[in-house]
Amino acid sequence: MRVLKMVINHSWCSVLITLLAVLGIIFDWGIWIIAPVLGFILAVGLFAAVKNARNRGLKLLFLRLWHLSGYFSRRFMGNSITSIFDIIYYLDTVDNHRVREWARASDSSQRIFNSWCQSFLTRLENDISDSKFDFHRYSNYLNELWLINNHYFETVKQFCEVVDKVGISPETREQYNRFTVEYNAFVQDFRNNISELRNMAETVIEPPSVKFAQELVVE
Hints:
Elements: H1 2-26, H2 31-76, H3 84-88, H4 97-129, H5 135-166, H6 170-200
Helix pairs in contact: 1-2, 2-4, 2-5, 2-6, 4-5
């Protein structure tokens, strides 16, 4: 049954053209009758093939974005040890009142990021399940992930600025640098996704706008 459905979906045009050609020979239909009909069917078939190829390409883009955002959520959100918030937690022991206050306030930011990412993934998964694939929808999701990451990167940048002023232990520096390795790999993958979209549709996002995290010198 699945094979029959596949044949109908992907080969209906060639099957129908062959069938009409055979019937034309059997019933001796004139070429002036059969040719326009076959040409119309061929044109419709080519249009459907182009549309199906476009939809498959869009589905692949959606799935790649889903994997990318899922990786971002698993590795850099929640209670992951590679989250910037897990590293900020260690600043709560620094002998600086303002830094400790900032570190404690980051708990609220972490909860907001977690909720935002979960909502993003849920909506994206629902659209993939419902096969809602179009460039406008994909561009909106890409823009939203770009926005989430940009706010996240601002937290990373603030952490580096704080560290330059108060200093942290070598162990925490090493943990942060391990974070940058994973995060920068994500950034490169994200840039690649943006570049692919720019080859297929218009977007205001430039790949360099997704910035790499700065590594810290281990003292």
